[in-house]
Structure formats: structure tokens, C-alpha cells
User: What shape does this take?
Amino acid sequence: MVWRGAFSEGRGIPAVASEAFARDGVIVIEDFVTPAQCAALRQRAMELVEEIAPQSPGTVFSTLDNRHARDRYFEDSANGIGAFFEEGAFAGDGALQVPLARAINKLGHAMHDLDPVFSAFSRGPRLQAVADAVGLVDPLVVQSMYIFKQPGIGGEVVCHQDSTFLYTDPESVIGFWFAIEDAHRGNGCLGGLPGEHAKGLRDLNRRQRDGSLRMERLRPDIEWDMSKLEWLEVKQGTLVVFNGAFPHLSEANTSPESRH
Ligand code: FE2
Assistant: This one.
């Protein structure tokens, strides 16, 4: 079972959590964010959708075919704030079949630098304490996403490792995943394979000489043991921290509630 526990304002997270992180590649820190903070972030995300989505080109974010990766708008969003759509938001004729606020898959990928609300949320002594506890020596925030997992159409995210897309040499990426709303099996919560990060990084999304991106299989010998799959059902305010090589996924959200 993945380690679950609380953050102590004086002591941070216990040594057993650091050990569990090394062993499993993932830990769950409950009640890390207050309901008021979650509400403020949610509110700001909705404002950004209203500001940005009407001008966006309608790029669909899909991990099933990675079509967004061929899109200039997606690439430019590394240093900006872009809005990406759910595939299920569009009808056969290409028209939106849900309101704009319910059509967006995610916002990304530099809110932590460009938006004051996200910037404040992304930094501070409590996050520093967690970063220290999981072995980050000189933490830098490199990417932020706000994922909506929209009711009814929130798309599946296939099993992957974040270091496939955020690569450093040596590997150093750690993901901080915050539940802005309750996440459970019904609305497409996170799932992952504890311990499988130790096998190493399987794929690398690498820039080719012609400028395109291609998924390369670095380690054909790696097979993930899907029998280890553990669903990480969590309450609003929970922080899930995971190693860049931790394989994780989420199912489509077919329920009537979102999973921000
Ligand atoms: Fe991921």
C-alpha cells in the first residue's frame, strides 16, 4: 500500500514517508491544501479558461494518439498559458457540444511563472519541506498544468512516466499532483504502479533532427507489472508526490462530476 499521512507544520513529513517515496516512487500527503486554497485555485482556473479558451485554436489534448504534440500552440505553451480541449467536447461537425467551461481538458504549462495565483501556490516553505523530504536538492518549477477531467467527457490518460516528457540527465523530475476536488474511481482518479519506477525510464519523447517529436523506446526490456496497479482515491486538498519514473494513469471520467 502506498504511504499516506499528514504534513506537520513543524516537522514536515516523517522519515518513513521519505523511505516509502524511495521504495514506491509515490506518497500521498492528506489535507495539504485547505478547501479555501482549492476554491481560489479553481476560481482562477475558470477565469483563465474564460480569458484564454476563446482565442485558442482548439487543440485537442489526447494521450491516446498524442496529436497535440504536432501542434505549434502546444509547443509554445511551454512558456505561456494555453487551453487544450477534450476530444469529446466536439461533435462530428467540429462544433462544440458542451459549454466552453466544460470543454477544456487542461490549462498549461507556465502558470507557475505567469499567473500570480498559480505562482504563489507553486512555491513556499511547505512545498520546500516536501521537496527536501523526497530528495530534491535544488528544486525548480518547470511545468504546471490544471487538469479538469470534465464530467462525462474527461479523457483517459494512458499509463506513462512523466520523465518521458520532462527529461533531465541525470533524471530528477518529481511530480506534485494536487486534488482540487475529491478524486475516486467514479470520476477518473489517479492510479499507479508502486515500485515500478525502480525499473527505470521506458520511453523518451525526443526531438528529431527535422524538428518533429518522436516517442523512442529507450528500454525494450521494461515491462510494467500491471498487477501492481493501485488506485489513489483521495480527498480534496491531498498532495500526491511521485517520481518522474513512476508509471501512472487515469481512466476516462464518465461520471456527472468533474475531477479537477
Ligand atoms: Fe503524468
Remarks:
- Residues 35-52 form the longest helix (18 residues).
- DSSP finds six helices and 13 strands in the chain.
